[in-house]
Amino acid sequence: MKIDGDAFNQRIIAGAREVIDEYKLIDPNELVVVALSGGKDSVLTLHILADLMGELEFDLVAVSIDEGVAGYRSEGVEAARLNCESLGIKLVEGSFKDEFGFKLDDLHGMYQSSCIPCGVFRRQLLNKISHQLGADKLATGHNLDDEIQSFLMSLAKAEIRRFYKFGPKLDKIHPDMVPRIKPLWKTHEKDVGIWAVLNNIEVHFAECPYSATSLRSKIKGYLNQLEEKRPGTKLSMLKSFSKSFKFEKKDVQMGVCSLCGEPSSLDVCMACEMMAEINDRIK
Description:
By secondary structure, the chain is α/β, with parallel strands linked by helices. Helix content is 47%, strand content 10%. The termini are far apart. 33% of the residues are buried. It comes from Methanobacterium lacus (strain AL-21). One of its GO terms (biological process) is tRNA wobble position uridine thiolation.
């Protein structure tokens, strides 16, 4: 079936704009940082926000993190650079090696899935750089599929306290914690891929070689099969889950890690706990 490119692009942009307006994701004069991996979702987020900068009167910077995955991450970083250059957006780069002293490849086999330490260290570094830049919001490329997968993962692990992290906009719960926003919250992942191909956008399509070991990968496969059999299931699930997005937000208390000083709900943050484990195993 032939796709009307203009109509498709308008639908994608309108969907993101609806989320931005409805949930007041961005206020005038704010600095928004885009977490830019170079993959299709973060690149679409960058393009949409770049188009809206003038109209909504905010500033935009992108941050790319090199986790240190041989034969994979360098292509994503290059895609991030090319898109920022084409749009005239400043790109700030960080890396696990420079910040923590190791690459993700160095941790292979230490955990059930390399996605576990990757998520912990990547979140901390993204927030640290965004805060140093003076950002008011941190925009991520999380799409509708990502949100449902994350919710089911937390549900399966009985991690109820994580429910406050769902939704298109997070509250500011600590002065040093940059609130996250998700403009693609109602956008299907497959539509993001179609957008990139349709518009000949430079993106990194490859899957991380470590992703196959994650619980997310298994849930993603199940949801895709379900959506194929019953179209509309994912959106229905999102609407259902949205009733729980406010769970425990009022009870969330953030302090700082006693070791690194970064925002944390624990006395010692997960990153520092893992750093201790990693240093013991590497020695």
